[in-house]
Design a protein that fits this description.
Shape of chain A: globular
Strand content of chain A: 5-15%
Strand content of chain B: under 5%
Radius of gyration of chain A: 21 Å
Structural class of chain A: alpha+beta
Helix content of chain A: 40-55%
Order of helices and strands of chain A: HHEEHEHHEHHHHHHHHEEEEHEEEE
Number of helices of chain A: 14
Radius of gyration of chain B: 10 Å
Number of strands of chain B: 0
Order of helices and strands of chain B: HH
Strand order of the largest sheet of chain A: 1-2-8-5-3
Number of helices of chain B: 2
CATH class of chain A: Mainly Alpha
Largest interface: A-B, 18 and 17 residues
Largest sheet of chain B: none
CATH architecture of chain A: Orthogonal Bundle
Oligomer: heterodimer
Amino acid sequence: MTEAPEAPATLEDRIRNWSIYAPWLQRCPVEHWKDVRDHAPIVRSEQDGGFWILTRYADIEWAAKNPEIFSSAELTVPHRRIFHEKLIPIQLDGMVHRKWRQTLAELFNPSAVNHFTPLLRQATVDAVEPIVLKGRCELMSEYASVLPAEAFLVAFGIGREHLEAFVEHKNWLRRVGIPSARTDEELRAANKPLWDFFGAAIDRRRAEGTDGRRDVISRLLHATYDGRPPTRDEMINALFVAMLASLDTTTSQLGLVFRYLASDPEARRTVVESPEAIPRIVEELIRHEPVSTTGRVLTQDVERHGITLRKGDRVLMSWGMAGLDPDVFADPDRIDFDRDVTRHLAFGAGPHRCLGMHLARRIIQVAVQVWHERIPDYHLTPGTEPTRHYSPALGVLDLDITIGPAA
Amino acid sequence: MGHTMCQARAAEVYRITDEGFNEMGEFEVPDELRDAVRRGAVACPERAILILED
């Protein structure tokens, strides 16, 4: 096992070298984050061409709610093109963005999520039953990666028989396709398998009919954008974005939720004895266990805390880390399921607030409920330690769980 | 699309629409629901619920 790379010696060095991809930052990003946050509200990293880091909840929320200054045209730091066209709706600004949100919002609303919950539950039961029989599992590959993919297919009306192909394409894209693509041509080639997968799903649904169906593809086939039907390419674009935005984030959150619950017998007992508490338990864990980071780019100069952020500068948006801000949350490092103030920024804020947030919450709530109905007691397998990462989302790569009480 | 957090924290008080919005408008709070009303109000990420004390 290789030694974890050492962090730069001083806080100033760590700030200058901050990047969610930095090897030295993969193991303990939260601890390092708190040092940076306590140092100053706005700092600058020199990595990836240089970018600002907003360290306080108030400033992250302010940037999120001022999209005309903080544009989503460049979404990640460093900025990586996924398509030639802008990602719908996540990379859009202004009226175009608003119109796409109007088209897409009702497809993911609480009523739709309630409608799909029985199918989500079934997929979750199917995932947990083999684990019960084995008595031990690698939770990330056997549970946390599976559930968001199954939920995606359910919500989008794509048959479960496509699960394996879907997951394979997506894993290849993330691990090989995108990282190794150097030109637009190579990126187009890397995206092709999934682009074709979604195109085929749309064509299939159109042929099979959409009567009485509430899945996203069926509804998209009847939706209007700016008074006209979305084009096939626009629909594929939106599906692709939904996939990129939802799978790894939800998987990471599930990993962190179960890592915590595996360590806290009292929390497990509460889940088992009072399942009605699950939504607020999940919400507090979403606050406490950060997952998501994206970015923005300045459209104009703006001053904040005596610092001038200049037009064209990039800004890191550490949504998940905002949940630990002591200015907003009393005793933020403590997990308190009865906490009053729960308004974390894990799903963002402002016009780009996560469209999938209700579905994500439901996936995690059902995952916790179904698991604990069958596996009330479990623990991290002795001698194992989850491998932690900060990119592309914060989480664990592996989580070795043994059923039953710890020895 | 609303957050639905008010209903999630205090279902006995708050009703939401299919879009997840609270469209209840102003209402009087009976004494026995004061705690629930407060719990739901502070849960709102948009701070959209205002409590008016007499």
